[in-house]
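Below is how a single chain appears once it has passed through the pipeline. First comes the sequence as given, then the structure the pipeline wrote out for it. We keep one example in the README because the format questions we get most often are answered faster by looking than by reading.
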Amino acid sequence: MKDILLNIAIGLATSAIGAVAGLLLQSALRRRAAARRQAFFGLPAGTECLLVVPRYMGGSGNRSVHRDDVSALMELAVLVESCSARPEIVSHDQVRQGLGRQAEFCLGGPTSNERTVAHLGWRLPGVRFDYDPDRPDPGAIVVGDREFREEPTGPDAPGCRYALLARLDPEGGGRPVFLIAGQNAVANHAAVRYLTNSQRDLVHRQGAHGTFAVVLRVVNPERYGPDVVEFVADVTASATATPAAAAPARAS
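Resulting structure:
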């Protein structure tokens, strides 16, 4: 009888030790994952970061924000808070600071976000958004000699939009800027979703630190919204290269 009780006690003790060890391991893994996330996004616990809001080009005023951009900002705010940091939401035309002081998530293309224009001109001079509402052909993101032109949805074609996702690391240290510039608000939202859900893949492809720029494809946004996103290309080298100046015309 004593042997039976002893075996039961040993079994219970072993189970308890195993359960505690499992909990400690899970806690350690969560802390490591949180530390990696904080390092990648430049969001140490207790810090603040900027969420830069674009304007809605089809809205009734300069302060209108598209509902997909609102959803994207909410998902970014959840990401920031998961790093124990605090988001500060600010309009694109109200930011008056350089890079590095705070981590930053800048949402929207150059037609809707003045901050994006500044980031592209300074850190990504090889990128151009080709869009003219008065032209019938769809817009494109042009990086170096590559063109990523949107495809309209039709009866026999799913269509797609593209988005540029970039991390800009300030020279000499400081907090990074994440630039999320899609061809429309749905593409912005899709790129944010890719960023928040594919951190491990981005670290594997691009590394935990440093500047990168990638192009994403949003498949059939008219039907799937921001849910179906594909990695298309790493365009870091072309995006960060200064385009060659056109040769001056010779006088005849």
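The chain is about 40% helix and 25% strand.

See the next section for the split statistics.
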